[in-house]
From TrEMBL:
Domain of life (superkingdom): Bacteria
Domain Stress-response A/B barrel: 35-130
Species whose genome carries this gene: Arcicella aurantiaca
Stored Gene3D superfamilies: 3.30.70.100
Identification of the protein by name: Secreted protein
Length: 136
């Protein structure tokens, strides 16, 4: 039997506990379910910079809904491949902890006001909702 010192025992135990807790935390974070809500807007007047600016203004206000964990407001990138859809004017990408948080967002007064105040700007909206696990 190998003789161990108190110092070696404490160092080994401390390192092992850090490794275990780091691994557990990583696994919990990696397996966390998320809900993704991605909306594409086609403006009635796609060449109107004023209408686009107005919609962007509305989305900025809408991003204040507290249940939203992360938001990205975008416009079509300059990439050009046959599989890329670039006909939309603005995209609205949201991340929620779960479906329940997204449902709260849908009924939130800020969201309802956004729809009432800005829906006259768009002719078409497509929504893609998905669930999955959070990755790095």
């Amino acid at each position: 039997m190998k003789k161990t010192t108190r110092r070696n025992f404490l160092q080994t135990t401390a390192l092992a506990s850090v490794a275990v807790s780091t691994t557990e935390a990583s696994e919990k974070m990696a397996s966390k379910e998320i809900f993704v809500h991605h909306v594409y807007f086609w403006l009635k007047n796609p060449s109107s910079e004023a209408d686009k600016a107005k919609l962007l203004e509305g989305l900025e206000a809408l991003s204040k809904v507290p249940e939203i964990k992360m938001v990205h407001i975008g416009t079509p990138a300059s990439t050009n491949r046959s599989v890329i859809e670039r006909g939309y004017s603005v995209s609205w990408l949201l991340f929620f902890d779960n479906l329940e948080q997204e449902e709260i967002y849908q009924k939130h007064p800020i969201h309802l006001k956004f729809v009432a105040d800005y829906s006259h700007l768009w002719e078409k909206v497509i929504v893609y909702d998905s669930v999955g696990t959070k990755r790095k």
